[in-house]
Every structure is written in C-alpha cells, then in structure tokens.
Design goal:
By secondary structure, the chain is α+β, with helices and mostly antiparallel strands. The protein folds into three domains: about 240 residues, GROEL, domain 1, CATH 1.10.560; about 80 residues, TCP-1-like chaperonin intermediate domain (GROEL, domain 2), CATH 3.30.260; about 140 residues, 3-Layer(bba) Sandwich (GroEL). The chain has a four-stranded antiparallel beta sheet. The protein has a four-stranded mixed beta sheet with strand order 10-9-8-11, with helices on both faces. It has a three-stranded mixed beta sheet with strand order 4-14-5, with helices on one face. Helix 8 links the parallel strand 8 and strand 9. It starts with 9 loop residues before the first strand and ends in a 9-residue tail after the last strand. The C terminus is likely disordered.
Length: about 525
C-alpha cells in the first residue's frame, strides 16, 4: 500500500479500453429501459432496498434504478439517465424514447470510427434540422388533449380524467397527485395558489400545516436581512415559516436559514416568487393579499417584523417540492381577493399587448385558485405506484401539448425526419428507434417500417389496435406532445455526443483498503 486514502486511488482506462466501458454501460442501460418502449412496452420489476418491489414501465423510473456494479460502466449509463431525467423535467414524457434514440445515435456514430468531437458536431447539426422539421410540423393541441393524455397513460379512463381536469384549470392552474388507500382515481378541486417553483434543498414533497407566511419583494442576502425574522419565529409558538421571496442562493441569509432548520429551531422553507421581471411586484401584492399578509417591501425596517403581526399571513396548509409549491386556502379576506380578481379580469379584457395579457391571465388564474388534486389508489402498493407514474406522465405530456402543440405519432414523425438531409448514422438511429417500437409490439419491424416509409404523411400504426396497413393517425387520435418529441431528440443528441467524446476514464477503486494495491 502507498498509504493513500481510498478515495485517492484510481482505476484508469484510456482509449479503446475506456470506449469499451462506455459502450458496455450504455448498452446495459438501453437493454433494460428499452423493454418499456411504446404502447406495448413491457413492465420491469424494480427491487427496492427496503419495502416491496415496484412494477412499472415508466422509463425514467427504471433508469433511476439502473445502478451498475462496474463504476466506469455506470458513469456511461448515468449520461443516458441524466438525458432521460431532463426530458422528464421539461416535457414529462418521452423519457424512454430519449434513452432509445440516444443509445442508437451513440452506437451508430461510434461505428463510423471517426474523431469523437467531429461526430458530436455532426449530431448537433443533424439534430437542429430534425428539431426544426418537428417544430414546423406541430399542430394546435386544443382538440387533441384527450388523445395525448390517453396515449401517454395508456388508459382511456386516465386520459379522460387528466384531459378534463387540465381543460378546466388551464395551463396556469396547479395540479398535484395524492395517494389514497382505496383502489380508485378521482379528482378534487379546491382553492389554492400555485407556484411552478419550489425549494432547492428538498428531494421530496413536504407539507406545512398553517405556517406563518412572510411575503417580500426585497432581495434577502445578508444576515441582517433575515435574522430579525428568524428570531421572531423561533421565539413564537408557531415555528412553521414560509418565506415567499428572493433569498439569494449561497448567501449569508440562506445559510443562516438552513442552519436554523438543521438545528430544529424552526421548520422553514423558501418559495421563490412567480416572476422576477418588472411585473414581479404585482404578483407579490396578489400573494400577500391571498394569505392575509402585509407585503414587506424594499425599504421597510426588518426589525418591525418582531412586533408587527400584520407582516405574517397563513394558509390551511402549504405543499412544497423541489420544483413546485401550492398554498391551500389562504387566510386573506375573500371579498378583497374577489375584488382584486375582478380588477385583473377587467384589465385582461382591455389589454392589447399579448405579453401583458399573458401576465394578467397568469395572475388571475393563480389568484382565483384553480388547483386540482388527483387522488390515486390501487389494490396493492405496487399497483398504486404504477398508476401514479401513468397519471404523472399523462399530466405532464398534456401540459406540454397545451403549451407547444402536438404531432401525429411521435415514432412515425421520426421516420419522416429520417428523410431529411442528415447523416446516415442519424437516419439509421431514427429508424432503429421505430424498429424497437415494433419489436416490443411483437411486430415484424422491417415490414412495418417499409409500410410507413411508403405511406402518406400522417399515416402510421396504432399499436393498441394494430391493422395490416398504416392508418390515419389523426383520425385514430394518436398524438404526442411536440415538446416531448423535440426534447427527446435534443437530449438524446446531447447524451450521445457526450459519450462519443470520452477517451479516458478515471474512477475511484472501491472496496476494502486491503484490496487496494
């Protein structure tokens, strides 16, 4: 032994040895996740460290559980996993497709035996052409929300529930999922204020009952900006604190808040404001009105919060996760909230600027509390977990469709994109992705591919109701959210390009120190 700590002792792989590790890791990730691909994809049983196994065919959920024993191989698998997670975050659907396309782009490009940096640039150039084509082919989603939700969830009943709910609350409304003990799925619509931002330090959804809510448009960075507020809460009876405002990341104020939370002096969280532009003040005024608080504005004396209770509002409960938050039933006077909402509605009707109208519509939707809770239950924990994944996919895919439109058949559109002026390896990868769809459906992939290539635009196969010949996908209601397909391509290109540029791997040696020579 050289007496170095284990973390300082490394395995090194260079050149062909490194590329083989990358190839093996990417292939293992692909083989596991791709089995879930498409409407007739198969389930995967995920063994859990504790508790019951989970049965799912949600691609990103499977990918998160693929942790390879060989660290170098796992690093390669992680690149594909991260791409899938990004698609999930930005589009909500297309997570499996990202790994499938990403792997084929990597494998087919690697076979060219060319410089990795040049191959990556070729993928980027081709990817831009494909994304441009998909964007130009996008259609309005207004009449196809049910189709998108049904395709994404694989269940007409779930699709109808999700589509109807989102039509009601709109793109600016909030929707969340809650597990229940009995085997059914239903929707509960209640009053609430929805944020599409949450608290960065969380890794799950947490709930605060009747917290103190402090609303400010002042940027909080120094200890002096926050200590009087924390002292007021620590000395009081209610130690649940929600700060709605801009507390700077890695600042003294944020570090002091986190320290007090870790020491159990208070139970606190920060919710960033819904906007940071010139109109942010209007949002903050609405929020303060909703929770029954006096807005703390830049220039107010922070020491006043020690004695002035008017600065604190509340709500029945507040849910916060890493990327969203909901205030349920704020304590503000309903007549005041109704009056503000009426003012905003009148301003919407009179506004000519599309940007300002959109801003006003967001304020109106949030203030009028369009919140839906989808209650999901199953006969067993495994069934409930699988249903939850399907509902989540349907919600996010439908929201993406409402925002950016739809495409008739995502897999079929990739076949059409293969006819663009792009490299052969990119063409092959798009076609290989379609072949995998058909293989999972127990179809002759070469026969079905040839039929789609010869068919008119918009014609393909409905995998849930297979026919001998391509059908009109629009009439069949087979639509995917444009954002999902675009994000699939962009993130697959990013992952494949990253893998192609690797020529060396340096990894810690794991195991007992006695095993490290």
């Amino acid at each position: 032994m050289n007496n170095l700590p284990k973390r300082e002792v490394k395995n090194i792989f260079i050149g062909e040895q490194a590329r083989q590790k990358i190839k093996d890791g990417a292939e293992k990730m692909y083989e596991v996740v791709s089995t879930t691909y498409g409407a007739k994809g198969h389930n995967v049983i995920l063994g859990m460290p504790y508790g019951d196994a989970v049965l799912t065919r949600d691609g990103v959920t499977v990918a998160k559980r693929v942790i390879l024993k060989d660290k170098a191989e796992d690093n390669a698998a992680a690149i594909l996993r991260q791409a899938s997670e990004k698609t999930n975050k930005t589009a909500g659907d297309g997570t499996t497709a990202t790994i499938v396309l990403g792997y084929h782009l990597y494998k087919n490009s690697l076979a060219q035996n060319k410089n990795g940096m040049l191959l990556k640039q070729q993928l980027v150039d081709d990817g831009r052409k494909v994304v441009k084509f998909l964007t130009e082919e996008s259609e309005d989603a207004a009449d196809h929300l049910l189709d998108v939700a049904t395709v994404s969830s694989g269940d007409p009943a779930i699709g109808a529930l999700v589509a109807d709910t989102l039509k009601d609350i709109g793109t600016n409304g909030g929707i969340t999922i809650r597990e229940q003990s009995y085997p059914t799925i239903d929707v509960e619509k209640i009053g609430g204020y929805y944020f599409d931002r949450g608290f960065f330090a969380l890794n799950q959804l947490i709930e605060f009952p009747k917290p103190l809510i402090f609303v400010t448009n002042k940027q909080m960075a120094a200890n002096a900006d926050i200590i009087p507020l924390l002292e007021r809460v620590i000395k009081g009876d209610n130690k649940n604190l929600i700060i709605i405002g801009d507390v700077r990341m890695n600042s003294e104020a944020m570090n002091t808040l986190l320290l007090n939370i870790s020491q159990n002096k208070l139970n606190g969280i920060v919710i960033p404001p819904p906007a940071f532009n010139d109109e942010a003040l209007q949002f903050m005024q609405d929020i303060a009105l909703y929770v029954g608080a006096k807005l703390f504005i830049n220039g107010d004396d922070i020491n006043e919060v020690k004695t002035n209770e008017a600065y604190f509002g509340t709500a029945d409960r507040v849910q916060v996760s890493p990327d969203k938050a909901i205030l349920f039933k704020g304590a503000g006077a309903q007549e005041d909230i109704d009056a503000r909402a009426a003012e905003i509605k009148a301003a919407i009707d009179a506004e000519k600027s599309s940007h300002r109208k959109d801003n006003l519509e967001q304020r109106y939707a949030k203030l009028t509390g369009k919140i839906a809770i989808v209650n999901v239950g199953g006969s067993t924990p495994t069934e409930m977990e699988e249903l939850r994944y399907r509902v989540e996919d349907a919600i996010e895919a439908t929201k993406s469709a409402m925002a950016d439109g739809v495409l008739p058949g995502g897999g079929t559109m990739l076949v059409r994109a293969s006819q663009l002026d792009i490299s052969q390896q990119f063409k092959d990868s798009l076609l290989d992705s379609f072949r995998k769809l058909m293989t999972n459906a127990a179809e002759n992939s070469e026969k079905r591919l040839g039929q789609v290539e010869d068919a008119d635009p918009g014609f393909g196969f409905n995998l849930r109701n297979m026919t001998n010949y391509p059908v009109d996908l629009r009439k069949e209601g087979i639509f995917d959210a444009t954002r999902s397909v675009v994000q699939t391509v962009e993130n697959a290109v990013s992952a494949a390009g990253s893998l192609l540029t690797v020529n060396a791997i340096v990894d810690p040696i794991e195991g007992d120190e006695d095993e490290v020579a």
